[in-house]
Every structure is written in structure tokens, then in C-alpha cells.
Amino acid sequence: MQSGYDQFCPIAKTAEIMATRWTPLILRELMADHRAFNDIHRGVPLISRAVLVSRLRELEDQGIVERRVRSNGSGKEYWLTEAGEALRAIISEMGHWGLVHARDAIKPTDLDPFFLVWGFRKRAAGESITRRVVARFEFSGVPSNRTKYRILWLVLDPGGVDVCAKDPGFDTDVIFRGNIADFVAVYLGHAMWRDVEGKAITVEGNRELCRLVPCWIRLDKVVGLDFPVVRGIKRQRADAVPSKAPPQSLP
Predict the structure, then answer these.
(1) pTM greater than the 0.90 cutoff
(2) Using an 8 Å Cβ cutoff, are 247 and 236 in contact?
(3) CA separation for the pair 250, 128 (Å, rounded)
(4) CATH 3.30.1050.10 residue window(s) in the chain
(5) Interatomic CA distance for residues 223 and 210, integer angstroms
(6) How far apart are CA 43 and CA 49, in angstroms?
(7) What is the pLDDT of residues 140-157, one digit of tens each?
(8) Fold for domain 10-86?
């Protein structure tokens, strides 16, 4: 099977890397500083582990990623090379195009609760988290093939943030309830948090944390306006209005 285009055109050569199934999503995770194999897989859960191994090996052969020994000496991590870092602008532009021109292409089966809460993990403002806080998400309108993720937990801790599909065993501080489609609309900046809070989406629990946790996971912000689609790339989207940012630190 032919793997290339047999052209010296630089667009063709770039497409030989970027137009491979799953590759842009793998790069998206690497650009969010997810360097461990399992973390990359959690961000792209529908790819088989065997295919992920194959894609990472191809990116390594192409000089896009390199494997490095972890700082603690146990195992390897995947890091972008200089050539890989240079692809940030491309992935960013793909994200901006999708936000504006592909919003009507989102299908009900695309509304994956785990990917949404994993996205909250990536967006979490770790510097504002001063103690462990557990947020429980209860989604309605979940696709039939993703109902096992109808309820998820986000554990926000100064040492890191994690997503749990089972009760993590800690007391729950905040509970979010709403239709998955409304959460996704806010996540993508197609709806404003201030317009759905207390209406389409409810938040229950500790009063102060009900105010702060949405800020910590940037529900009150607009992607591509208040923070970048891809880290390190400053690019403003044109289809959103500025959000109002409430205080973000816990006393």
C-alpha cells in the first residue's frame, strides 16, 4: 500500500505526516503536555493501544517526537522535537477552523463525557488549587455507547488533577448536573457559562466551591479568546465575545 504522494511538494510532505488517521489527535495531547503513553491514550480513547504504539513509532521515525527517560528514571515519555513543536501552529489552526466551521458537524455520538471531563483536566488552573476538591459530574443525554461515563469525578489537587470513572473514595464537594450537549457548548465557547449556570446546568455543594470550581476548569472562559486552543499559540477567534472572569483563588 502506497504511504506517500510521491511529490516533492512541501504540502504533500507535510500531509504524509498530518493526514494520517489519529495523528493530529495524538499531537494535540502531546501539545497539552501529556507525555506518558497512558495519558495520551486516555485523551484518544477510541484508538487501539497497538495503533497508538504504531503511530508514535512513525512520529519518532519522522523526527516529530522522541522518547526520553522520565525524570524519576522509571519508563519513557514522548516529547515533541523541534520539528514537532513547529506543528503547534498547524494544530492550532485546525482547532480554530473547527470551532467556527465545524460546529454544525457535531453529532450526538460525538458527545463523549469522558473526553469532556478529560478536557477539564487539561484546562484546570492548577496554580489556583490549594487543597483537594472533588467535583462530581452527572450528565443526561449521553450517547448510548457512552452511558458508563454518565457519572464521572474530577479530583482537583495541588499535586495534580485526575479523572475517575469510579467513585474515588473522597467526599464530594461539588456536583454538576446537566445535558452533555450544554456542557459541550460551553466547553467550545458556543454558549456562555453565565447564561447556563443555574438553568441548563446546575451546581450544588459548598457555596464557595460552587463559585470557584467552574473558574478553575475555565467554564467561565472562552477557548480561543481567554486562553489558547493550543498552548503556546496566541490566536484570537472571531466568533465569540469576551467573558466575565470572577475571582479564581480559594482563601
Answers:
(1) no
(2) no
(3) 7
(4) 104-216
(5) 21
(6) 12
(7) 999 999 999 999 999 999
(8) Arc Repressor Mutant, subunit A (1.10.10)
